[in-house]
Fold these 3 entries.
Entry 1:
Amino acid sequence: MKKLLITGASGFVGWHLCQLAKQEWEVYGTYLSHPLEIPGIKTLKVNLTNFQELKSIFSNVKPTAVIHTAAHSQPNFCQTHPEESHAINVMASCNIAGLCADNFIPYAFTSTDLVFDGLNAPYQETDPVCPVNLYGEQKVMAETGMLQRYPKTAVCRMPLMFGAATPTAKSFIQPFIQTLKAGKELNLFIDEFRTPVSGTTAAKGLLLALEKVNGCIHLGGKERISRYDFGRLLIEVFQLPATMLKSCRQQDVKMAAPRPADVSLDSSKAFALGYQPLSLRQELKELFNSDRY
C-alpha cells in the first residue's frame, strides 16, 4: 500500500483526514503534545520544527505522499506568539516542501481563507492576498516559500471548519452547543462571513487536491453565511434553546488579532475537479444523527 504521512494527526482536520485516508493508504500520523491512538494508523511523536527529526521521519517512513495540517491555527495565539507560531507555520512547512521535492512525491498543505483582507469576497485562487493578521501573513509566507521550493505543492486554502469533536480536538461548534445547553448567552457576529465545510468534507477535498492539484486551490463550501446565521441553523438542526443567541459586531469584541469581515471562498475550480460539499443543513443533520458531536 502507498504510504501517506499526515502531520498534525491530533488536530481537528488531521484526525478527520486519518479516518478517511486509512481506507486507501497506509497512514502515518504525527503529533507533538497530544498523544493519541487512532485504530489503523501508526502515530509518531515528532517535533516538526526540528529539521533533524523531520528528516529522519522521511528516511524511516519513506512516505509516497504528504499532507501537512500541523499548525498554530488560532489567530490570537499567533499574534501574541510570533516566533513560536512562525517556526511551525512557515519554517516547518517550507522544510517539508523541500523534502517532498527531494523525493518527487505529492504534497498538500492546509492554508487558510485568512490570507485575504475580507474586502472583495468571494475570492478566487488568482486574487491578490492581503492578510490583516499575523496568522494570515504566516500562511502567505508559507505558500510562497513552498511553491518556490516545490511548484507541485497543492496549497489548499481552507475555510472555517466544523464537525465531530475528536479525542484531542474540537471545532468551533462544541463550545456553541455547550453554552446554549447551559442556558448562557451566545454572542455571534452578524458581520463576519465565511464558506464553512465539515471536517469530513475538508478531508475529502485535501485527498482530491493531493492527487489532482499543483498550486493554489480553494476548498470552501457552497454557502456564504455569517457566524450568527450559522448559529441559528445549528440551533434549528440540533433543537437547542434559541432565546440565548444574541447578535454582535466584530467591533464589539476586543481580540488580539484583527479579523477580516468576509473571506468567503469561490471554490468553483475545486467543484469542477469533483469536490462536492453538502449543504450546511445536510452536514449538520448528519452530525446530529451520528450522535458524535
Entry 2:
Amino acid sequence: MSSTAPPSGIDHVDERLLRTTPLKKLLARPELGSVVGAAAVFVFFAVFADSFLRPSSLGTVLYAASTIGIMAVPVALLMIGGEFDLSAGVMVTSSALVSSMFSYQMTANVWVGVGVSLLVTLAIGVFNGVMLTRTKLPSFIITLGTFLMLTGLNLGLTKLISGTVSTKTIADMEGFPSARKLFASQLTLGGVEFKVTVLWWFGLVALATWILLRTRFGNWIFAVGGGADAARAVGVPVHRTKIGLYAGVALCAWISGQHLLFSFDVVQSGEGVGNELIYIIAAVIGGCLITGGYGSAIGSAVGALIFGMTSKGIVYAEWNPDWFKFFLGAMLLLATLLNAWIRKRVEATK
C-alpha cells in the first residue's frame, strides 16, 4: 500500500491554518487603499479650503457622499460577483418617474405610487439578471441595452403623459408629507443638519457588510466573482446569486429614486445619465476589482466619501468646478494603483 504522507523533511501545512499578524490582515483589506486616499483628500482640502472644516460643511459633504453611496453599495456587491450594471443611473430616474406619474394620473395616495414603483424597479433588476443568465451575453451588453431602453422610455413616456420632459408636482397629494419624511427629511445632530439619506447609506453599508462576511449568500458572491464554473462545481447557485445581485441594485435604485422625487416633488426625465459610471468609480476606488471576486461594501462607502469630499471641497476652495472630473479621475487611478501594490505586497509575504 502506498503511503500518502508527505515526503520526509517537507512540512505540509494548510495555509488557512497559518497564523496571520494583525498587520497582514490590515494590508489584506480591500478598502485600505481608499482609506489612505480619503485621508489624503481630507487633509488636502482642510489646508486649501478654510470652510471645509466647519461643522455645517460635514452635513453637506455626507449628503453628497450618501447620494452616491446608496447606489455604490449594491454596485460594489455586483462587481464582487463579477458583473456590471450600466443601467443603474437611469434606473433611479425611472423609479422616481413611475412613482410620480402613477400617483398623479391615478389620483391615488402617493404611497400607492411608491409601491408600484418598487415592483416595477425590482422587475427591471430581475430582467437584467435573467437576461444575463439565460443569454450568456456579457453584462456590459445586457445592461447597456437596458440603459438605452430606459433612457428612451423615461423621456418618451414622460412627454407622452405629461406633455413636457418633467412630471407634474405631487406635493399637494395625500401621503406626500409622510413619504417625504421617510425618503427626504432632515435631522439635526449636535447642531449639524443631516439628510436622512445618510442614515439609509450607513444602514445599507452595514447590511451589505453583514451579508458579505456573515452569510452563505456572501460566500456565494465571492465564489461567483472568483469563477462561475468553479463555484457551480461546488454547488453554488450561480444564476440565483447573480439575479439576486441585480435585484439588490434595483432595490437601492428605488430608494434613491424616491429620495429624488420627494426632495423636489417633480422629476426631470433626462436625469441619471452618466451616474452609473460614478457608482462604478466609487466601488473601484473602494477596492473592488474589475475582474470580480474581491472588494467590500465599506470600501464603496469610502469611495463615495471621497466623491463627496472632492465635489464639495472644490466648491469650498472656490475653484472652478470643471476640475472635479480631473480630481475624480486622478483618485481613481491612484487608488487602483495603490490597491494593486498592496495586494502584491500581501501575496509576496504569504
Entry 3:
Amino acid sequence: MDSDTLYSIGELSRRTGLTVKTIRFYSDKGIVPPTERSPAGYRLYGLDALARLDLARTLRDLGLDLETVRKVLDREASISEVTEAHANALDVQIQTLRLRRAVLRAVARRGPTTMEMDLMHRLATLSQAERRRLVSGFIDDAFKGLHANPEFVTLMRSAMPELPDDPTPEQVEAWVELAGLCQNADFRVAIRRTAEDQAEEPSPQDVITLHDALNQAVRERIAEAVSAGLLPASAKGASFTDSLGGLYADAFERADGGDLRRWLLARLQTTADPHAERYWQLLATINGWPTSPTLAPVYSWFTTVFAQSADDHHKGLMR
C-alpha cells in the first residue's frame, strides 16, 4: 500500500479533531484497527479510518455504547436497527426523567417527611401494569365473596388510573393519594356497601346515565328551593323532598312511601361517602378527565331535608 495513504495517530488527530488518547483507545477497542505498523512499530491507518472515526464519534454522541458502535462499523448490525433500538431506549429514559421531575416538584410543593417522600417515589415510579394491578387488587378484595351488581363492578374495573408519560405534579400527587385510598379500610367498607345496595336493588336502566339524570334533577330542584328561600326544616322543604322522592321512585321502580324514604336515605348516605367521591375525583385528575362539581353539598343538603321529612312522615303515621 502507498505510504501516502497511511496516517499516524497524530495525523488522524489533526484531521478529525479527536485527541491522540481517544484514537488510541478506539484502536485498542477495535473501532479503528491499524492497517499496518511502521518500521519503528508505530500504528498506521488507512483512509477508511477517517470515515470510521467520524461515524464512531456521531454514534457515541448519540449515546451508543462502544460495542454497538464496533458492530455497526464491522457491519454486524445495521445503523437503522441499532438507532431504532437506541431511540426506543431513550423513550424509556425520557419518560423516567419526566416522572422524576414531576415527583421532585410534587415533593417541593408538599414538603413531606423522608418516609413520605420515599413512599411517593416508590408509588410514582410503578409501571402502568403495576398501577393497574394495585387498583385491580383493591377491587378484587372489595368484592370478594360478594354477589355485586355486575354493572357496578364493570364500572369500577373499566376506570383505571393511566398516569401520562409527562405527568404534572398534581397528577403524581393524585396517584399517590389514590394508591393510599385503595388501602383505606373505611373506603373498602364503603365500596362493599355500595355494591351490596346495588346488588339488592339493581336498576334496569344504564347506571351512569340514570345517576347523571338524577343528579342533574337534584341540582335543579335544590336551585329552585334556594331561590324560593326554603329551609331544610320547613314544610315546603318537606314537600320539595317528596317531589325528589317521586323522581327516585320512578327511576328505581319503588313504591313512593315511608319504605322508599328509608331506602332512599340509606342509598344517599352511601352515595355521599366522601371516600367514594374522592376516589372518582382523583381518577379524573390522574387521567386528565373533566372534573365534575362536587356532589357532597347536594347530597348532604338533600339527606338532611329528607331525614327530617322521613321523621315527620313517621310521626304522622304514629298519631
